[in-house]
Specification:
Number of helices: 14
Order of helices and strands: HHEHEHHEHHEEHHHHHEHEEH
Number of domains: 3
Radius of gyration: 22 Å
Structural class: alpha/beta
Oligomer: single chain
CATH architecture of the largest domain: 3-Layer(aba) Sandwich
Strand content: 5-15%
Number of strands: 8
Length: about 400
């Protein structure tokens, strides 16, 4: 039996490669859009590898092919290196007030500009985020910069229950994106990830020229593991898991193929592309299962660790009786919910009941089961999500 490679506990590309951990190579897909300018936005549920994707892009643009020669992009990429401004908006989502939020945003941006080796001689750390960025960009006259933003939606989702603070943060973020748009000529590439799509709201209309890759069938497998990838990169882990499970159960019940089927029922069958072409497993669930399966069974339900508590709390307060009954039919009877494709990412100035199915889709609680003439049928992807939804809709 082939010995399994180490499973990484970090989302940082360099650490994964340097420690010879499993890295599921999607760099051929990265080459498809990274060769273009953007700006691009990409939405997937929590735990689907968006941060690893951002980290891979950062290393590619900063270091070129230094760490990619053995990967698919090694024969595809011809570009030079760039200065990269990389921001993670989840790092300042828990600010206690609007002023604290602005100050935390400033610090994150100032650090990112410094890490990109940009000249900060004429700027002050206490300038507003938009002013700080503008003062840097106005002195750049060529496409020498790359902008990467991870978890862009985190500051808004964290204050869903506070409409005043939500609106204040929207304004600050909208001004920031307006600055990015004003200086788009200096950017070689812009890429933004998140879980919930607020960009379609009127507040972010200043940045509505970005191309959304989320439903594009060419990138349906950009985040998450396909079954072929699970077989290719995790086959030794599957065989090892069978051995451990058979020992725990004192049987020969588990084989490679039936464990793969079990993993699909529990953690797979997500689809997010509008042609219903690619079906993927939740990578965080898969890595957790293999990492925790040692001498005992992993936790029977692991999704709680990967759920967005802010959104779950919000949903518990706004789910109506009718919506709960509809979701229970999805859970118990396996029925689907039909939505127009345009309604999967509606205008979200604030999350409301009429947008709940779209929100549940963006969270990964619902996924695409079928596609026909612009109408998408949504259903529950797997047993893990089904259990989480049962907890969400139960009466307290």
């Amino acid at each position: 039996m082939e010995f399994p490679k180490e499973l990484s506990k970090t989302s940082t590309f360099r650490d994964i490669i340097d420690n010879n951990c499993v890295y599921v190579d999607k760099t051929d897909l990265i080459a498809k859009f990274a060769s273009l300018k953007g700006p691009f936005v990409f939405f997937r549920p929590r735990g689907f590898g968006k941060s690893t994707l951002i980290s891979s892009l950062q290393d590619l643009f900063e270091m070129g092919l230094d760490n990619f020669h053995s990967l698919k992009i090694g024969r595809l990429w011809k570009d030079k290196t760039y200065k990269v401004i990389k921001l993670d908006f989840s790092s300042f989502k828990e600010s206690s007030s609007t002023e604290d939020f602005k100050a935390s945003f400033n610090r994150e941006l100032f650090t990112a500009l410094k890490n990109a080796n940009l000249s900060l001689n004429k700027v002050q750390e206490n300038d507003g985020p938009s002013d700080l960025l503008s003062e840097i960009l106005m002195n750049i006259d060529s496409t020498d910069l790359v902008l990467l933003i991870d978890n862009y939606d985190a500051p808004l989702t964290a204050v869903l229950a506070d409409k005043t603070e939500f609106t204040s943060r929207q304004k600050i973020l909208s001004n920031f994106y307006s600055t990015v748009k004003s200086y788009q000529g200096v950017f070689r590439f812009v890429f933004i990830t998140g879980e919930i799509n607020y960009f379609s709201s009127s507040t972010f209309s200043s940045f509505n020229l970005s191309e959304d890759l989320s439903l594009n069938s060419d990138f349906g497998a950009l985040a998450g593991f396909t079954e072929d990838e699970l077989e290719c990169y995790f086959s030794p882990n599957i065989d090892r898991a069978c051995k451990i499970l058979n020992k725990l159960n004192k049987s020969n019940k588990y084989t490679h193929d039936n464990l793969l089927s079990t993993l699909k029922r529990k953690y797979g069958d997500y689809c997010f592309d509008n042609k219903c072409k690619e079906h993927v497993y939740n990578p965080s669930f898969i890595v957790h299962f293999f990492s925790e399966l040692k001498e005992e069974h992993p936790n029977s339900h692991i999704s709680e660790s990967f759920r967005n508590s802010s959104l779950d709390n919000f949903l518990r307060h706004v789910l109506s009786k009718d919506i709960k009954e509809q979701l229970l039919k999805c859970i118990d009877l396996g029925i689907s919910i039909d939505l127009a494709q345009s309604n999967l990412y509606p205008q979200l100035d604030m999350l409301t009941e009429r947008n709940l199915y779209a929100i549940l889709y963006q969270l990964g609680d619902l996924c695409i089961k079928a596609s026909r003439k612009g109408i998408l049928s949504l259903g529950i992807p797997n047993l893990e999500v089904k259990q989480a939804l049962k907890e969400l809709v139960k009466d307290e």
